[in-house]
Amino acid sequence: VFCDADYSIHAEEFEKVFSCVNYEYDLIMYNVERHSKGNIYIEKMILAEGEYGKEGVDYLKKRVLDVPLYCKWESNVLQGSIWRYIYKTKMLFEGHILFDKGIPYSEDLCFCLKVFNVASNIKVVDLPVYIVNEVENSASRRFREEFWEELKAVYGKVVEIVGTDNSILYCHYGRSAIKHYLSCQCFGNVKSKVKNVLDDDKFRQSIIDIAFGKKTFYEYFFDWCCVHQNIYGLYLCGIYEKMFWVIMNNAIKWKSRLSIDKK
Q1: Burial class of residue 73 in the structure, from the number of CB atoms within 10 Å of its CB (0-12 exposed, 13-18 middle, 19+ buried)
Q2: Helices (DSSP H) in 35-185: which residue ranges?
Q3: Strand 50-52 versus strand 122-133 pairing type
Q4: Most exposed residue of 16, 64, 68, 119, measured as fewest CB within 10 angstroms of its CB?
Q5: d(CA 163, CA 120)
Q6: Mean confidence (pLDDT) of the chain
Q7: What is the pTM (predicted TM-score) of this model?
């Protein structure tokens, strides 16, 4: 079992799950409890509680490769996180499954994909064992100077593991890199970084190839700016996103204060 430094485990719930462990399962999947800005909620399990063969493992593999490309994108995304499972140690050793030291980001995703390639069955237990404390400026949220290069390195590893190209994932990584740069630094500091992403022919072509008719106006405009390499239009998108999240965060704070006053 793996546990990140800023997360924790419900010991009693874990003991209940661990009582299910035996050598016939390569993986055991449990539920997750998330703590975010004073709110606590339990995730909905992506697989119903029960036992699954290779088809269940393959379904998880498909879901971790899915991405929320647009707000109306119909998907059932599962993060590629190592802390969601109990692993059979023998399976890891015999499959030569190790963390890749050559990538500084998404090591969990690549590890999980390797596991899904060799695992033959899984047991799902609907108990909230793992506690995710969403902390700002953690390793996955702080500004990353070479984020686009890191994402391309991850993409290369993913293709190497699964054996197929994935234009949707590549598009997602490109859009994520642009939004990351625009949201974390002032425009003058990251203009060259954004341009570097826009100069990538494969990224721009991936947007053109993805036919999706349910984009919002903002998403149409963002993609148009990417395809036409309009860096100043993307700067406006960055301002819009910052304003949106400032308004949303303030609305959440005021809602919490009103709830406290009523009590």
Answers
A1: middle
A2: 54-64, 89-94, 107-118, 147-162, 167-184
A3: antiparallel
A4: 68
A5: 19
A6: 87
A7: 0.82
